[in-house]
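the three lines:
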Amino acid sequence: MSIPQTTVAESAAGARAFRLRRFDATLPVWMGAALFVVVLMLLPLGAIFTTSAFTEKGLTLGNYVEVFTDPAYLKAIWNSVITSFWVGVIAVAVGALLGWLVTRTDLPFPRAVRALVMASFVTPPFLGAFAWTLLAGPNAGLLNNWYRAASGSETALFNIFTIEGLIFVMALYSFPYVFSMIANVSELISSDLEDAANILGASRWKIALTITLPLTAPALIGGFIVAFLHSLSLFGAPAILGLPAGIHTITTQIWAFFQYPPRLDLAAAFSVPLLLATVGLIAVQKKLLGRRGYSTVGGKGGQKRLLKLGYLRWPAFLLVAAILSLSVFLPYGILLKAALSKAWAMPLTLDNFTLGNFTFTFFQYGDTQAAILNTFKLGIATATAGTLLATLLAYITNRQLLRGARYLSFFVLAPLVIPGIVLAVGLFIAYSKPPLMLYGTIWILFVAYLTKEMPIGFSQTESTFKTIHPELEDATRIIGANRLRALKDVTVPLARSGLIAAWSFIFIGVIRELSASILLFTPSSKVVSVVIFDLKEEGQIGAIAVLGILLLAVSFLIILAVQWLAGREFFASSRG
Amino acid sequence: MATVTLRELTKKFGAAAAVDRLDLDIGDGEFVSLLGPSGCGKTTTLRLLAGFLQPDGGEIRVGQKVVSSPAVLIPPERRNMSMIFQSYAVWPHMTVFQNVAYGLKLKKLDGGEIAKKVERMLRLVHLDPLAGRYPGELSGGQQQRVALARALVVEPEILLLDEPLSNLDANLREEMRFEIRRLHEEFRITTVYVTHDQAEAMVTSDRIAVMHQGRIVQLGSPEEIFDRPKTRFVAEFIGKTNILRGMLESGRSVALGDGLKLRVLAGDGLAPGKEVFVCIRPHSLRLTPSAAEAEAGRGKGMNLFQGVIQRRVYFGDANDYIVELPAQRLNLRVVAPPTQKYEAGQKVFALADPEQCVLVGEE
Amino acid sequence: MKYLVAIALAALAALSATRSHAQDAAMIEAARKEGKVVWYTSLAIPSSTALAHYFMNKYKGIEVIVNRNGSQRVLQMVMQEAGASIKNVDVIHTSDAGHFVLLKGKGLLAQYSPKAAEVFPAGFKDPAGYFFGMRATLSSIAYNPRVINEKDAPKTWKDLLDPKWRGKEVTAHPGYSGIIMTHVLALVKQLGWEYFQELAKNKLHIVQSANDPAQVVASGERPLGVNGAEYFYYKTMKQGNPIKIVYPKEGVPLVVSPTAIAKDAPHPNAARLFTEFILSKENQQILADKEGLYTGHPEVTYPKDKPMLKDLKLWAVDAEELEKRNAELKKRFTEFFGA
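prediction for all of em together
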């Protein structure tokens, strides 16, 4: 063994001499991005906890006691839990069925079904809820009118302004989450696994039940939790369907706390359990999925064959079509009708036809133009900044650039499951007083959207980065490019389609965002979703329909653009 | 002067040391291979050299300059090195020309100069007709040439190669070995080459460092490594070999079981009375059916084994035999010319020159 | 002599007219420089939008930014912005007179006595000069004549308690609407909380805005509105929707909706000009003709098919009381009706 020839003193001097050069010039960028996102998260969450735990009397649990002893508030919690539970159950049943039918069977028109599921996914739940008030209001609802006309009955078939109605609508817009999880897993299960059972003499239905289903079980549980959390965090749907029947949920109650005289302390105290429940459920999901794992499903797997449905093929298709008409065709149809008619409940005759809703909405109603402008400005700004930030962060976690990069991704992803309205409570408290005075400007919405929607871009970007061989980047660096340059010249161009998808995910997320916006807007910073909500409270149905159609049209245009630009299926992108 | 010095270099992943107090001196313009099975730490060593990893102990110097130590890490982009990767890592969104030109652009050379250098380099690797193609339109071998051109065009002080040929098919691999050596002779860049393929290392290298469990177990010219393995591991890893267990008696005699004594090449640092291993390459054994010839051989000081052909495999350019030695209850593998044909069950003698019976230690 | 006096008086009048004219011109000029006026209002969207356009047509170059929301939301916005020291609003208008007592008490209103309001009756003026009734409406009953026969239709507030209306009625919410807040206070004072307790048994559909019941009734979703902005019922009816308004003989809550200028109005001149405009006879007449509203201006005439206020028994409420009982009214209403 040879002894190093430099003495200790020499190498210390050497180290000093090289300190400057050893300093990776790009380090501040990574540190900055990581610090930024951590602060972005900690400020609102910290604000919630401190506000909930302090009164004039100092540290106290008084707010919690007040919130959790009042029967009205407890009822709101119970309503949220029970609706979200059933939403989870229905979403799993419907999402899994559709996911399985589309990926594993010879169901007709699988691509069209996928596209329509995606349409449900993109539809803002508050818009769906609104459309369903027109479809299934007990007395004037179109479907109930048809039912009465057909049956001669006096009563309504279905009253949407009930807990059941709320569950129904929220499930319609939650099942696509389960669908995509199931479809992704189901596509990876190779037929070999099923063949193994086949050789043992199991029938194809038995195989589906005993092999395919258990293999997808982790995804089913995960899907339930995602659907549950999604519906727990919804504000618009319960506000539109629940409030008219006197039904409060956690989110609508938090919103009510903001009405004059505002009770921010109670809103914060009310947010904390929602936050903890969310964190708890995510932990459960992680644990469940971690233990069962997708490893049995296997990466590439073998070939996959489609199960022949036989005589059930068309009945199955009809069922799927029926489900999709509930989430897409009927609501879109009634929106279109309402947008084009003077009186939405009347038949759309020439007499009843008007373009007046469009001219009123776009040219007369003062809020619209500014709100549309705000919405798109925010959408573009957030999507751009969010994609940039997501790229940096995904790069840090993917390449493990900083110590604790793994925890960083937890931080980044956390807002994905924090209900928007809870985030908004935190943001409002944190940013409505100096020195961080963002309330009253469009920037608080920007910060809210960035916090809330960037994680979607992050997970998208990260999974894209995983597919890019790190050596491609190493090759850049070794011949003289620093990390940022490598990122810019090689990794980003190669991740292009993933980044475009991330951008559009964020953009679509922003333009449909309601639950955080509703607490953070001021009259000078209204966005389309808030205008729709305001219009709803005033019963301006034609204008809502017009704005809703605008939102949907823009979303679909973006998706088409992505598919064209990035040459990929929009929905496929959630696969890692 | 691009000499490279590795001193006590250590890199741990968790508790396990992937590179364990490794020492190595590489001369200016020398071509050194790090050879070893997967997991031996050779790629980690290379990535330490490149600066993608920071060592947990020891240091790396280029010339007199410390480039890596637990306290110092000059990032890869400031090391004036080039690297060729197992996956080629040719950028799929750039043409061949753009791939090769990229490093020169980073050096802010002007366009004309870049074009001149790139064109010259592409000619050198025979890719000039393909300059406008995208990597997706190239074969694996062509992509590897792009990677070579890209690495060489920036005129690095040091060239690092990480299993560059492992993804190529057998014929191409053989061709590229010579290509790499040819380019080395052309440019004389200090080169570190990581491979698990001994033939690659033999063809390309000035010296080979055989690695095992994070350390260099033997460093030497290809001949030294092949002919004079120091340990059983090296002997077994480099080429096929017979390993016979025995007891070292005096400096040059090893007693196998059943009283057979082998005369061997002296081994370093092995004390008499200890269990040792004798390494005999299958090529070094000569088979003969004739007892007379066998006796004549023994008379000339050759080691003599007596056995029975157990199995023959015909390889076209050679016959590969398993010879059972009933007395020693072990099998010898012998590679004989294709003209020497014996059938299974046939009694044969095997002769081995003591010069080619190498004494090795366990480690 | 008489002649001289007449000339002198005429000259004086001319002089003062010129001076007032000059003052107006100065105000308009100053307002133009500010370029816009921000109006937080609870006046129904079509009405407030229309009003803004009348103003913008008359005073070109001054933009009216309309932010329409429920009275309680308007207050929430004003208070939240005040709490965060955001200066955005110029003119505040809600249908909950109590709000103005509150805002005045907190020092958030500017004192300004519009010339246009000089002719207004006492019920439309804050004696201290901080706020003025821009419009008045009633909270009335309305039903859908395609669903409910005129002879079956309720005539009084108490008729609404009949169990046969179960699942057929709609109410707006005092937690959103100032009109409904006023309505609730008026009815509580006349009929007591028992009335609402009883009413809640009919499982009402709850909407937010006092304007929303109009479309709910018109569509037949709930054919009977137990309250709601009478002017909006009227407007919806005039558009050809099936609506009939009932003005109960026992009394009808009168809702006077004040307007005021914010203390920290960023466009104070435009705010004054806008206030003068909305209280002017010209505009008050438009409100009566086009929007179906009542006003405080004594010279305004009303459509023939609307009852005159003097022919109705009006239940007016005290702004101070509205302010004091705001939280209580909301809370109890919510207890009975949920949400």
